[in-house]
Design brief:
- This protein is α+β, with helices and mostly antiparallel strands and 756 residues long.
- The protein has six domains: 10-156, GAF domain (Beta-Lactamase, 2-Layer Sandwich), CATH 3.30.450.40; 160-249, Beta-Lactamase; 252-357, 2-Layer Sandwich (Beta-Lactamase); 362-481, Beta-Lactamase (2-Layer Sandwich), CATH 3.30.450.20; 485-576; 584-734, Heat Shock Protein 90 (2-Layer Sandwich).
- Helices cover 42% and strands 25% of the residues.
- The protein contains 23 helices and 27 strands.
- Strand 16 (381-385) and strand 17 form a beta hairpin.
- The chain is elongated, with a radius of gyration of 56 Å.
- The structure holds adenosine-5'-diphosphate.
Length: 756
């Protein structure tokens, strides 16, 4: 343990400190050397040096010393001392002194001295500490300034490796640093240039030097080369350093500089204006930026193209010999208006302008557009900030996620259903920040109100700020059908199918009922007919003429009734699925010779109507139930005869793709357009002053036609009808119908039904 030595004489301390300062490079080295010096020369047990520039944390006691700018001394450390000092006390130290090192508000650090000497620091020590603190601070301060200047110089070396010649000038006016372009420009090497006076290089009078020192731009020629002239712009770095930017203004150089600039820039237009503000030269970027060839602008006054906010003369007034920077709106007579930034500076009676696109304004405009897009879009969109807080959302997002008012400021992550989705969104944000956007990310979101899951596929797009950095993100979500919704749809489908089944069953039941009733009616009618026939033949002697006539009426009406019942039975059979088709090869030429058709043809002729039956040569045989096909013909031809008084009835059979088409045409009374859709309905008969028909119909004929044709997978309709001129019915039957087996098989019921 080194015992604390008595304080050294003040004069010696000052000498030693100054020597230490001289021997140290930067202030940091100096402070740490001072720490070592104190430890050895004052017999301090431990010295702690804290460097302020290293952003070290100072304890409250150290902060106090720094704020008051006075050393803090505490003799007799104990468990009652300030928290940070108790620690020293626990380590066996008896006294502590903290020296603040700071100057002009700049903190360099603290030096804490700890001693195990029971006697503590003597008053002499305190004086010494105060002086030491003062002198170290002041030396550190000047070292810091020097370091700063040195750093500035290094900075210029590094940052001004561009083509502009630059110089650093000391307070005595000599060159202490020059960048490469400056060396080239003045055609000197470092040795020749460093230490030389500015006036050794340039033609400078006293007044120009004074202007430079005041910060004004001056123009000067070169001593060595009279042809070259320069613009020198000064900026003061500190008391001892002046930075000069040298811009060669001589003609040759200017042209060269220009071409360099032109090469470099596509979104900047450079131009030179003469004294009268007319454009004397303009770079070729004019084409792309202004949409107008630069040659056409040369000679024109630049002022004429500025719309907002001011004229160039105002700008130049503001310029008053120096520089101008501001926003302008340009228009060149074409449609486009261009928002741009203008930097202008005056030199040698000319104005040099650089016009660059105003990206900030474009960005603001884009932001406005983004807001519109978000608002108007039907896709759910949520705008969030970098931390994932919702900034805004559109109404589609409101509906999808059930976002209420005041959702702004809610974390997007709270809308996620699970951790995986949260992680996916976080990743998407960082990908979008780097790549601009990321698409098709599957995430499970939730509705904010009832917290139902909303699986989505998302696109995340970064919204950039003026510096091109992602400041916000746009989340576009497309909802995927949830399992629940698919189930809902399936439920609805099942319900609909049930309804259809129920309806079918009911309708079958109804047909079955009609079938049963009709069937039961047939027996009594047949009996009535049988007995009335018997009466007519057997009782011909006993019955009066009048009685015989009545019985004949009973017989005729019963026959009509039976016909009606048969038809009702037929429709019911067809509809209830009892009818099975007996498929065979059907030839249309042979059908013509069928007895039923033949008798219809006869009836036709009896009525004085022409009858024709034409089958095209290419009509093939079809697969169908021949009896049912004949029934279709019978009903249609029967109707045609019924409703035609003069003219003709013609049948025309032709081939269509995969089917055979049959037209049954008459020249009868016709059917109005509004009635056509009704006639295929059961029991439908048009009410009109019909020519009374013998045994006129039941309104079931066309229903039967329609049922039979559909059973064969064919179609029937009225293709042409004019009231008073006639009607054409057309039915088509497939050549080879794909009829389900169950409709083909004969069953017992069918045999019985047919047998009746
Ligand atoms: P109906 O047994 O009364 O003939 P349909 O079902 O066969 O029953 O016909 C329904 C109605 O369609 C007929 O009452 C008639 O008004 C009309 N109709 C059918 N065919 C013709 C036709 N060729 N010309 C004019 N009207 C017809």
């Amino acid at each position: 343990m080194i015992e604390m030595q008595p304080p050294i004489p003040i004069a010696r301390l000052v000498m030693d400190v100054l020597k230490l300062s001289r021997e140290s490079g930067g202030y940091r080295e100096f402070i740490s050397k001072f720490g070592e010096y104190v430890q050895t020369n004052l017999g301090i047990n431990e010295v702690i040096v804290k460097d302020g520039s290293q952003s070290q944390q100072f304890s409250p006691i150290e902060e106090t010393a720094l704020n008051t700018n006075k050393p803090y001394t505490e003799n007799g450390l104990s468990g009652y001392s300030a928290t940070e000092l108790i620690e020293y006390s626990n380590r066996g130290y008896k006294c502590c002194a903290i020296l603040p090192i700071s100057k002009d508000g700049k903190v360099f650090g603290t030096i804490t001295m700890l001693s195990k000497d029971e006697a503590g620091f003597a008053p002499d020590h305190s004086t010494l500490f105060s002086i030491a603190s003062e002198i170290v601070s002041s030396e550190a301060g000047s070292k810091y300034e020097r370091d700063k200047s040195f750093n500035v110089a290094k900075y210029f070396d590094a940052s001004f490796s561009n083509m502009m010649p630059q110089l650093l000038i000391s307070s005595e006016g000599s060159i202490i640093r020059a960048n490469k372009p400056a060396l080239n420009c003045f055609d000197r090497n470092q040795k020749e240039l460093y230490g030389a006076k500015l006036s050794d290089i340039f033609e400078l009078d006293k007044q120009s030097v004074e202007l430079l020192n005041k910060g004004s731009i001056i123009e000067a020629g070169l001593k060595a080369d009279q042809g070259k002239s320069f613009e020198i712009s000064p900026s003061r770095i500190n008391e001892s350093l002046l930075h000069l930017m040298i811009n060669e203004t001589s003609k040759a150089k200017e042209a060269e500089e220009r071409s360099k600039l032109i090469d470099r820039s596509n979104d900047q237009v450079f131009m030179t204006l003469d004294k009268d503000l007319s454009i004397s030269w303009i770079s070729s970027a004019s084409n792309s930026m202004f949409g107008i060839n630069g040659d056409l602008l040369v000679g024109k006054r630049f002022t004429d193209f500025i719309k907002v906010p001011t004229t160039i003369s105002d700008i130049m007034q503001k310029l008053s010999g120096t520089r101008y920077y501001g926003q302008i709106t340009l228009s060149f007579g074409n449609d486009a208006e261009l928002n741009a930034n203008l930097s202008a500076y005056k030199s040698s009676g000319r104005i040099y302008c650089i016009i660059s696109k105003d990206y900030e304004r474009i960005l603001r405009f884009a932001q406005g557009m983004t807001d519109d897009v978000i608002g108007l879009s039907n896709d759910p969109m949520i705008e969030i900030d970098k931390l994932g807080y919702i900034v805004s959302h559109n109404s589609a997002a409101e509906t999808l996620f059930k976002l209420g008012n005041g959702t702004e400021g809610t974390q997007i992550y709270s809308l996620c259903a699970d951790d995986e989705s949260r992680a996916k969104i976080a990743t998407s944000l960082s990908v979008a920040a780097n790549n601009g956007y990321i698409r098709d990310v599957y995430v499970n979101m939730i509705e904010l109100k009832d917290r139902t899951e909303v699986p989505c596929v998302q696109t995340v797009k970064a919204i950039l700020d003026a510096n091109g950095r992602a400041s916000k993100f746009l989340l576009m979500s497309k909802e995927l059908l949830t399992k629940r919704r698919i189930e809902q749809i399936e439920d609805a489908k099942e319900r609909a199918e049930d309804e259809v089944k129920k309806f079918k069953a009911e309708s079958e039941l109804k047909s079955q009922f009609i079938y049963n009733i009709s069937h039961d009616l047939k027996t009594p009618i047949t009996n009535i007919m049988g007995f009335s026939k018997l009466l007519l033949t057997d009782g011909s002697d006993t019955l009066s003429k009048e009685q015989k006539d009545y019985i004949q009426i009973i017989y005729d009406e019963s026959e009509r009734f039976l016909e009606l019942v048969k038809q009702v039975l037929d429709v019911a059979k067809l509809q209830s699925g009892i009818v099975k088709l007996d498929l065979q090869q059907v030839n249309f030429n042979e059908i013509k010779n069928n007895p039923s058709i033949k008798s219809l043809a006869e009836a036709c002729q009896n009525k004085g109507l022409e009858f024709s039956w034409v089958v095209d040569y290419d009509v093939p045989e079809i697969t169908a139930d021949p009896n049912r096909v004949i029934q279709v013909f019978s009903n249609l031809i029967g109707n045609a005869i019924k409703f035609t008084e003069k003219g003709s009835i013609s049948i025309r059979v032709s081939r269509k793709k995969g089917s055979v088409s049959v037209d049954v045409s008459d020249t009868g009374i016709g059917i109005s357009k509004s009635d056509i859709p009704k006639i295929f309905k059961k029991f439908y008969q048009l009410k009109r002053g019909l020519i009374k028909q013998e045994g006129s119909g039941t309104g079931l004929g066309l229903s039967i036609v329609s049922e039979i044709v559909h059973l064969h997978h064919g179609q029937v309709r009225v293709v042409d009808s004019d009231v008073g001129k006639g009607t054409t019915f057309r039915f088509t039957l497939p050549i080879k119908p794909k009829i389900p087996k169950k409709t083909l098989k004969y069953n017992k019921a069918e045999h019985q039904a047919d047998a009746i």
